[in-house]
Amino acid sequence: MKTLHIPRDLVQEHFSARAATYDGSSFWCTDQAILERIRGLLAPTGTERLLDVAVGTGLVSRHLKPHVGHITGLDINEDMVDQARDAVDELVISPGETMPFDDGSFDLIVCRQGIQFMGLDAVLAEMVRVLKPGGRMVSIDLAAYGDDDRVEYFEILRLRNPARRNFFARGDVAAAFLAAGCSQVATHDHVSVEDVDVWSDNGAIAESRREGIREVYRNASPAFASLHSVQLADGRIVDHMLFELTVGTK
Ligand SMILES: C[S@@+](CC[C@H](N)C(=O)[O-])C[C@H]1O[C@@H](n2cnc3c(N)ncnc32)[C@H](O)[C@@H]1O
User: Fold this and answer.
1) What is the C-alpha separation between 109 and 177, in angstroms, rounded?
2) Digit-coded pLDDT (tens) for 182-193
């Protein structure tokens, strides 16, 4: 794992700039397959209290709403959560690292593409604290496949999102779950096929950064190109990006 020091103002600025177009900014955002996998791992029965950490525009919560009893969405960015109002029962504006909830408040916790912007130990400690004993938490994160692609992939992810603080390779989030005190930790792979030009057009980065991303793909090492099954054709770049779905029990 690699960690950078990112000022909170930069995170706010980045997501305020992206809020209006966020839902269309990656294939994975609205892909029903990944949302269904998240539901399968949480396995709600209809009555649970769910916390969605880094709720954003509410895409995950909206999918889970018919399957749980109550949803609290937490995020630091008001522009993002403005679009989440219909998806949750309660919105809380707060950093994930210091949550204003009592111990054991939730049966289930989900966080998709959120912990990369936070102090990792702090947010996982908070997630474990506010989870009921026996409750489940799931984090869904882009990860490098391993040592052979991590340097190039971390550079791509850094260029794409200047607010990103943590860069994960396969297994890093599971190790962090265990360190935070979770048991029965398991990871599941989900590969998302992303058109790099669509994915990099997030409305919040300069064209020079997008060109920098294209350059990394054009000059990719054979190992990176193979692990990511990179396709370069007709000016398009397609990447098979690895998501890890990490599940743990308190
Ligand atoms: C990539 S979006 C993910 C949104 C949503 N989970 C989804 O899957 O579509 C990341 C979200 O994390 C939020 N965020 C960033 N840093 C945060 C922090 N320290 N505490 C709470 N939320 C944070 C951002 O405001 C943004 O809404």
Assistant:
1) 13
2) 999 999 999 999
pLDDT in tens, 79-88: 999 999 999 9
Instruction: Residue 129: name the closest of 186, 180, 88 by CA.
Output: 180
Residues of the chain with pLDDT under 70: none
Hunting for tokens 């522009």 — which residue is that? 79
Split into its structural domains, the chain has a count of: 1
**How many Å apart are CA 53 and CA 73, to the nearest integer?**
6
Q: How far is the CA of 7 from the centre of ligand 1 (A)?
A: 15
CA of 68 to the centre of ligand 1 (A): 21
Residue 155 within any structural domain of the chain: no
Q: What atom of ligand 1 comes closest to residue 77's alpha carbon? A: 25
Dist. CA 55 → ligand 1 center (Å): 6
Which residue range(s) make up the domain with 20?
Answer: 2-146+161-192+243-249
Query: Tokens 């890093």 appear where?
Result: 172
